[in-house]
Backbone:
């Protein structure tokens, strides 16, 4: 299953020419569509008749010191339920602090107390939404007051909260570049059975030792290679999403990236089958 | 509370840094890469500025990018953004400017009208679909009660920000301007149309409940010299433009 992030930028083009993009599902940020109506929602609703909806939230701020926003969660649940959302994913980061939204993803300190704090919040979210939370390992440009390794931080949260994981292959690549570790090794240390969703995207290298996760460029080859490795290691079919949020090209170019993902996906799973038989 | 004070404080400091850009905060952050931390401020400020300047293109063009960036900086460092929906954040910017930028609003007395006008377009595009009342498309315009499109908003301005470029607005233009914004029921496009005070009152009355021309005349005949012909003309036009959907069942 290969999906695409649904965007207003190409909504009209896709509506007027439904064959211009061939995917298995679409993904949106619920914050962009909750309590929204009108022209764009009408186009979006049409697409929902043909495609299953996956979601990738922005404002939950699971890693924030702040309490959860229960009014927001209530609206979110209404949106997820009424649109038969397949997966609700979010980020293992914080985007709100001291009661102020920041609209971007900041790194949570890798500490034992933060693990406990996040676990408690994840459990509340899962109870309220009555569905598993699928948390994405985010890209980050600096650690903050870390007392443990990132991999141990992530694994402790998954183990103690029983949430699932979104493996954003590009994020792991970006982090391995920015913080100097082996991305393959990192991935193999993750709990394989908890990974429920994969993201693929492009990024921008701003200087010799920093990559910014812009989602504004095509996917680069090393990230494709890491994707192939991840699929073989996972040994199971899994939904894969192409994220493109800025500098959005025409649908032809998006489709060619989707096709490449499909090709690698089928190839990796095929090999796996042969291997098993 | 599982979170230690120290962890909480580090997160709070990082958040403060991204909101204010205050470089002195960086020295209080533990175990960081300075260049990466600076990027967070830049990325977040750009998200906020892009959101605001895209929501208010006329205002940005009029005040200049430099002034708008400065206002964005004031807003984001002092105001705690409340909406979890980033597209709605520019509304909080507008409220902040109107409430806190007294000097600027005195210098440009039409500024609040201009911001309201620009925000109204986004709000009308994005607001939840309203329940449509029962109505029939056929009826007798002279005798039947007419039903108003529920997806409308009436804006009241003191300056003609919807007609003139802000550079051309002078003190002498101060007056009373009514602008109707509505969603076309089929295309869902947002349309603006100017109203006179009389048309505004008709819309307000129809907003309460469907009324016939006769009832509207009764309501306004004493206070206004408008005749039946003017009302009929307005209702007919509003019906053609889908401001009025049809007739009460
Ligand atoms: Fe992602």
Residues:
């Amino acid at each position: 299953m290969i999906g695409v992030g649904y965007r207003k930028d190409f909504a009209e083009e896709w509506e007027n020419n439904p064959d211009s993009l061939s995917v298995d599902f679409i993904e949106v940020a619920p914050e962009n569509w909750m309590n929204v109506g009108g022209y764009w929602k009408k186009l979006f609703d049409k697409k929902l008749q043909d495609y299953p909806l996956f979601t990738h939230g922005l404002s939950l701020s699971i890693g924030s010191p702040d309490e959860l926003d229960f009014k927001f969660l209530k609206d979110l649940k209404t949106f997820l339920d009424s649109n038969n959302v397949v997966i609700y994913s979010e980020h293992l980061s914080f985007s709100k602090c001291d009661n102020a939204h920041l609209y971007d993803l900041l790194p949570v300190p890798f500490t034992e107390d933060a693990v406990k704090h996040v676990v408690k919040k994840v459990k509340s979210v899962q109870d309220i939404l009555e569905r598993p939370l699928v948390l994405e390992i985010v890209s980050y440009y600096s650690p903050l007051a870390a007392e443990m390794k990132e991999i141990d931080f992530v694994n402790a949260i998954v183990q103690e909260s029983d949430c699932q994981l979104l493996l954003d292959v590009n994020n792991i690549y970006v982090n391995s570049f920015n913080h100097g570790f082996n991305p393959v090794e990192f991935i193999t240390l993750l709990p394989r059975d908890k990974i429920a969703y994969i993201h693929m995207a492009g990024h921008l290298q701003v200087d010799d030792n920093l990559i910014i996760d812009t989602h504004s460029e095509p996917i680069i080859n090393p990230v494709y290679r890491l994707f192939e490795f991840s699929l073989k290691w996972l040994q199971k079919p899994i939904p894969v999403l192409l994220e493109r949020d800025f500098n959005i090209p025409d649908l032809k170019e998006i489709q060619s990236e989707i096709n490449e993902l499909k090709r690698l996906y089928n190839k990796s799973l095929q090999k796996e089958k042969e291997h098993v038989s | 509370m599982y979170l230690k004070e120290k962890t909480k404080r580090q997160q709070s400091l990082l958040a403060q840094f991204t909101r204010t850009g205050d470089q002195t905060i960086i020295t209080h952050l533990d175990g960081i890469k300075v260049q990466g931390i600076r990027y967070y401020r830049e990325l977040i400020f750009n998200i906020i500025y892009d959101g605001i300047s895209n929501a208010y293109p006329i205002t940005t063009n009029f005040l200049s990018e430099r002034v708008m960036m400065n206002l964005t900086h004031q807003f984001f460092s002092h105001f705690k953004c409340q909406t979890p929906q980033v597209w709605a954040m520019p509304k909080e910017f507008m409220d902040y400017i109107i409430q806190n930028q007294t000097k600027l609003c005195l210098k440009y007395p039409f500024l609040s009208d201009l911001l309201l006008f620009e925000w109204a377009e986004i709000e009308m595009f994005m607001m939840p679909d309203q329940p449509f009342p029962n109505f029939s498309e056929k009826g007798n315009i002279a005798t039947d009660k007419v039903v108003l499109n529920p997806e409308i908003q009436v804006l009241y301005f003191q300056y003609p920000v919807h007609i003139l470029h802000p550079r051309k607005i002078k003190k002498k233009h101060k007056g009373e301007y009514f602008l109707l914004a509505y969603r076309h029921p089929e295309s869902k496009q947002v349309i603006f149309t100017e109203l006179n005070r009389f048309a505004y009152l008709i819309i307000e009355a129809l907003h309460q409940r469907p009324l016939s021309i006769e009832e509207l005349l009764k309501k306004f005949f004493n206070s206004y010299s408008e005749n039946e012909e003017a009302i009929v003309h307005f209702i007919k036009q509003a019906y053609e433009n889908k401001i009025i959907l049809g007739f009460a069942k």
